Amino acid sequence: MEFLHSILDLVNSSEVNVYSAGFKLALSLVLGAVIGFERHRRGQIAGMRTFALISMGATLAMLVSIYIPQEYMGLKNGDPGRIAAQVISGIGFLGAGAIIQSKGSVRGLTTAAGIWIAACIGLAVGAGMYLIAVIACALIIFILYKMSSYEHKLFRGGESKIIRVKIDGVLKDISHLRNILDEYKIHIQDEFVKYEYKQEITILNFVIVTRDSSPDYIKLFSKMESQEPSIRSITLTNEVNN
Fold first, then answer.
1. Beta bridge partners of 203
2. The whole model's pTM is what?
3. Which of 24, 99, 139, 174 gets the highest tally of CB atoms within 10 A of its CB?
């Protein structure tokens, strides 16, 4: 029993030792892997291994940040947050790599935010804030797992989509097509127009958000075709065609 108490004292010690460092690294591994599991389940590239390594790396940075002034400068003379502070800014480069911008569509922002907060959890574990790190991890899982379905229900029909219209000839006036979309209570977030002068084709990309429930796209497209007979095709997609 005394041995167990002595181990617990070493683990909870404010000074860096083998027992406390091992426990902190193991805990940050578990917490990072839990977040990574949810991201992997959603089909994201960054999964359990990535998040576990990020969390452990941040914990190790915090341990080194505490250890150096503890061993070489004295606890009162050093700055234990100096090395750890660089993790906050440095992890941004890794998060930026998780963000994919493809033809008007941006993916990976949630994963990038998860990477950043996983690093913060690692720092918290490294500083000995075990309970706070566990609570933060639980809240992150709640946000990623539960709030996604709540968000979908709350903003149902409010997803961004792209209506791609291919028209024969160079069409300079597209106001009549905008009016049709407005009729169906569809908000145009952005629009991209491409003219193929040699082939005499106009390609329109309307980035839209529906205000209410999803409109009847079949009726919408039929009306667009009746108002503009030179339409060759209409497509509902998630990517802009450049």
1. 166, 194
2. 0.60
3. 24
